[in-house]
Amino acid sequence: MAKPGYILLKLVEVGIIFFVILTALFFLFRLSPGDPISKMVDPMLTPEDMAHLIQQMGLDRPMWEQYLIYVKNFFTGSFGVSFHYGEPVATIIADKLKWTLLLFTTSTLLAAFAGVFLGKIAAWHKGSRLDNVMSISALVCYTLFIPWFALLLLWILGFKWGLFPLGGVLTPALWISNASVFARILDVLHHLMLPLLTLFIINLGSYLLLMRSSMLSVLREDYILTARAKGLSEKKIRNKHAARNAALPVITSVGLSLAFSINGGALTEQIFTWPGIGRELIFAVSNNDYPLAQACFLLIALVVLCANLIVDLLYAWLDPRITY
């Protein structure tokens, strides 16, 4: 198990790394080519109006002063105001984040559970026809090119067969009417199914192969032979002794996948016009919307660092041999 001293040390380490990222993001965006003004204003504006707009954004101040304001705003819970939208960055991120979490977290967890279950079965029946079919299918899913596969499903299931909407997260006509809450939930789920199916199939292959490989390695351990010598049932050996330890690499992969899913799959969100963080991040970077882009990257960094810490602690909980 993880000791309190180790947890405290990791928290300090996470804090230092996050502050370095916080600083690096500020200067990287300021040193990048282009400026937010030229991409968001009417070219017919007078130089006086341009100067006034720059002053309102605080871009006329020295770099060090902008940095101090940036750090102060962060530690007071303020991410600033988006240059493009003119709204608080926190409001924009909160609106986009819910859709990203709904799609990517759901698809990752479903694929992980299915991959662990199928992977341990494939490993347990190594060399059989079932194992060969599962392994080949998983390898095909793992090597699929996401944009191609997403467009293929969109064309077949959405355009040709008309089973699912071609994009978006809701039907405007339904939401402006007096439809019930249940009808609105079904509408969101209907829009969710196609991108969810795409991500589920692609992620399933990697988790199945990872679990199968880890399971095969664990099955060669001495404690598995000891469990058999004790007369334990094959089902108990597989599920309680082998699968639990074999799941450690999968947990690491899932933890990092969940962390990085916070930024959304930019290509997936673009193809399905899903209004998540990924699309917003691309827009903010391409338009030099410093506050919005910085907040998106900081959110990703924070979640990734926390995910790494949680995975470390889960290792010690799942495997008693691991101590910190």
TrEMBL record:
Gene3D superfamilies: MetI-like. InterPro entries: BPD_transp_1_N, MetI-like, MetI-like_sf. GO terms for cellular component: plasma membrane. It comes from the Bacteria. It holds the Pfam family BPD_transp_1_N. Residues 97-311 form the ABC transmembrane type-1 domain. Keywords: Cell membrane, Membrane, Transmembrane, Transmembrane helix, Transport. CDD domains: TM_PBP2. GO terms for biological process: transmembrane transport. The chain crosses the membrane at residues 6-29, 101-124, 136-156, 163-186, 192-210, 246-272, 292-318. It is found in: Cell membrane. It is a multi-pass membrane protein. Belongs to the binding-protein-dependent transport system permease family. This is Oligopeptide/dipeptide/nickel transport system permease protein OppB. It comes from Desulfotignum phosphitoxidans DSM 13687. The lineage of its organism: Bacteria, Pseudomonadati, Thermodesulfobacteriota, Desulfobacteria, Desulfobacterales.
